[in-house]
């Protein structure tokens, strides 16, 4: 699969073939599971309501037990009264779900593959040289014209840390480093702009791992 490729100035160059690891066969159930876990982990999980024992109100009995013709009541802290405690409200329970590393990687590549099929992935070379917001805005305008997208997520290599200073000031763009990106970041990222330097880093990592195994 060929992907549109641009320079840092927004000039379109020859299309680039998508690497083999990105061409994973999609598994909807696995992808849904991964996205569910990442969504759940993005919630703080500290919502809480006060019970009748925690509400700051008087503990005095509303009126006497008998002889009023009304129902029997205790204090105004009871859930039946406005301003009283909540009977069965949420409690601060934090459940942390985890995924095995192989599912993390598979779901990540699956999401890239889905985005590529929908033509929501482009490559940009030279992002590591991006240092000014003005240049980033010009690049974004060129990508908007070429792709008709309104929201962008830049997937950066480790060599492009300086580019974050220019990208963080753009309203319709966000960024994430490739090693930290997950299926949810990519799935909800709009148009994915991949730093071409990522593929050079991947080759270095694979060579280093082979050398370590041989030792």
Automatic annotation (TrEMBL):
Question: InterPro entries recorded for this chain?
Answer: Ribosomal_uL4, Ribosomal_uL4-like, Ribosomal_uL4_dom_sf
Gene Ontology cellular component? ribonucleoprotein complex; ribosome
Keywords attached to this entry: Ribonucleoprotein, Ribosomal protein
Task: Write out the GO MF terms.
Answer: structural constituent of ribosome
Q: Which domain of life is it from?
A: Bacteria
The record's listing under Gene3D superfamilies reads: 3.40.1370.10
Q: Which GO terms describe its biological process?
A: translation
Q: Which NCBIfam families match?
A: rplD_bact
Looking up PANTHER family in the UniProt record yields:
50S RIBOSOMAL PROTEIN L4, LARGE RIBOSOMAL SUBUNIT PROTEIN UL4M
Q: Which family does it belong to?
A: Belongs to the universal ribosomal protein uL4 family.
- The molecule here is called Large ribosomal subunit protein uL4
């Amino acid at each position: 699969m060929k992907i549109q490729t641009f320079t840092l100035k927004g000039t379109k160059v020859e299309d680039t073939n998508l690497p083999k690891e990105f061409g994973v066969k999609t598994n909807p159930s696995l992808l849904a599971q991964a996205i569910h876990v990442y969504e759940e982990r993005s919630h703080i999980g500290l919502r809480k309501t006060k019970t009748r024992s925690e509400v700051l109100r008087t503990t005095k009995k509303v009126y006497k037990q008998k002889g009023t013709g009304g129902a029997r009541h205790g204090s105004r802290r009871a859930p039946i009264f406005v301003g009283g405690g909540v009977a069965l409200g949420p409690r601060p329970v934090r459940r942390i779900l985890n995924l095995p590393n192989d599912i993390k990687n598979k779901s990540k590549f699956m999401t890239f593959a889905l985005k590529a099929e929908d033509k929501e992935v482009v490559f940009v070379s030279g992002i590591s040289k991006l240092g000014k917001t003005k240049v980033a805005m010009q690049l974004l305008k060129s990508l908007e014209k070429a792709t008709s997208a309104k929201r962008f997520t830049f997937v950066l290599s480790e060599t492009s840390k300086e580019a974050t200073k220019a990208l963080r000031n753009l309203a319709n763009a966000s960024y994430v480093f490739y090693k930290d990106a997950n299926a949810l970041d990519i799935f909800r990222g709009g148009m994915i702009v991949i730093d071409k330097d990522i593929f050079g880093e991947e080759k270095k990592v694979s060579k280093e791992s082979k050398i370590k195994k041989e030792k």
